[in-house]
Write a structure and sequence with these properties.
This protein is α+β, with helices and mostly antiparallel strands. It is about 45% helix and about 15% strand. The two termini are about 45 Å apart.
Length: about 400
């Protein structure tokens, strides 16, 4: 079970992550039991004529430290609030109800939500972090299953407007330097624990056999080298994959479907097929392929924008707004994403927010056509959401 529990306010859409009371009570009981053991042995130790220093240290480490750790866990709680109104992500940690740590991040400063995991012999532990523009991370939840963390990441992503990415748990720089000196292969082994790919096998040892050369004699035949063939050899370095130069936009839907079925990692073919379905009005198929494209290529801002257009045309305005905001987070200078977000906000009667997006679209406009489009939208002209240009 994840360390923090989720509570959602249906009226405001505010998400709150907090430390549940059950594990804290369990930690308190565990700590008191260990504390009782420690006190019992300490009393017996000091009641004798002589104090055994070794036994005293053993009691402190064996019972005292677990008791202290459990009691601190029971008396400490964490709360994280994701607020739509203030558009902030606030983290507060308390000890005995007294706050000792507080940090707030604006939605616009969150570049992505990173899911990290590490495998152990028993299970895989997942962590969710919010990564800021300064590459500093704020932990949102930990010790969860993949399903728990994935569901939480999707909910927060729809509110914050930041894409979800996957990564490995990173070691502190100081620890990496120590490992490099003490055990050069330790970091590779740690990376292997966090992935499902086996480490490459070391190359087999080569065995060299010295073949004795017979002594030369007058009867040894003279070997004449064969004539050199003047026919030029085929330069394999000049050959290219024919499929790499294919214009995907020129392919038909059946051809793109065949490419998608034949390559589970081809994000370009999925994006091209999604736009084909989108043009034909098959929005559900287009939405699925846009989502597949983002899963394979999380930084594709064009696909993220087009996903927002399809969701808006499908009537899913809340999801469309989140998609546009993710596209802007990936490419803050996208005229199209700012324009589409402004059009959606205007349709939601959020005129002030829409004006800000139209202004940003005009600032980012490249060329007269984009400038005229942004100015028309800001004056109230009826404009359909725009797909990205490939």
């Amino acid at each position: 079970m994840a360390a923090l529990k989720l509570k959602e306010d249906a009226a405001t859409g505010q998400l709150t992550l907090y430390t549940p009371i059950g594990p804290r009570l369990g930690a308190l009981a565990f700590g008191l039991i260990w504390l009782a053991f420690a006190l019992f042995f300490l009393i017996n130790t000091f009641s004798g004529d002589e104090t055994d220093i070794g036994l005293l240290l053993f009691i402190i480490f064996f019972a005292g430290l677990p008791a202290l750790s459990s009691l601190l866990t029971a008396l400490t709680d964490t709360s994280i609030v994701i607020d739509r109104n203030s558009r902030t992500l606030a983290v507060t940690k308390r000890l005995l109800a007294l706050p000792y740590y507080s940090k707030s991040i604006a939605f616009g400063d969150v570049t992505n939500l990173e899911m990290q995991h590490v495998r152990s012999n028993k299970r895989t532990v997942w962590v969710l972090n919010a990564v800021g523009r300064d590459n500093k991370q704020v932990t949102l939840n930990w010790n969860g299953t993949q399903g728990e963390i994935t569901e939480l990441a999707d909910k927060i992503s729809s509110i914050v407007g930041a894409p979800v990415a996957s990564g490995k748990i990173k070691l502190p720089a100081a620890l990496e330097q120590v490992l490099d000196k003490v055990a050069p292969n330790a970091k590779d082994l740690i990376d292997q624990v966090q992935t499902d790919e086996p480490l490459p096998a070391p190359p087999p040892d080569t065995l060299t056999i010295d073949t004795p050369i017979p002594p030369a004699s007058d009867t040894t035949p003279t070997m004449t080298p064969p004539p050199i063939d003047a026919t030029p050899m085929l330069d394999l370095t000049q050959t290219t994959d024919a499929t790499s130069s294919v214009d995907l936009n020129s392919l038909s839907i059946p051809a793109l479907e065949q490419r998608v079925a034949g390559d589970a990692m081809d994000s370009d073919a999925r994006y091209a097929l999604a736009k084909k379905y989108h043009a034909r009005g098959q929005l559900d198929k287009a939405i699925g392929l846009y989502q597949d494209t983002m899963r394979l290529e999380p930084t594709n801002s064009n696909a993220q924008n087009d996903l927002g257009v399809a969701l808006q045309q499908r009537g899913k305005r809340t999801e469309a707004e989140a998609a546009y905001r993710r596209a802007i987070a990936l490419d803050p200078f996208s005229t199209t994403a700012h324009l589409n977000l402004g059009l959606l906000l205007r349709a939601l009667n959020r005129a002030a927010d829409a004006s800000q997006e139209f202004y940003q679209a005009r600032q980012n406009a490249r060329g007269d056509a984009e400038t005229r489009l942004a100015e028309s939208a800001s004056t109230g002209a009826k404009i359909e959401p725009q797909l990205s240009k490939m």
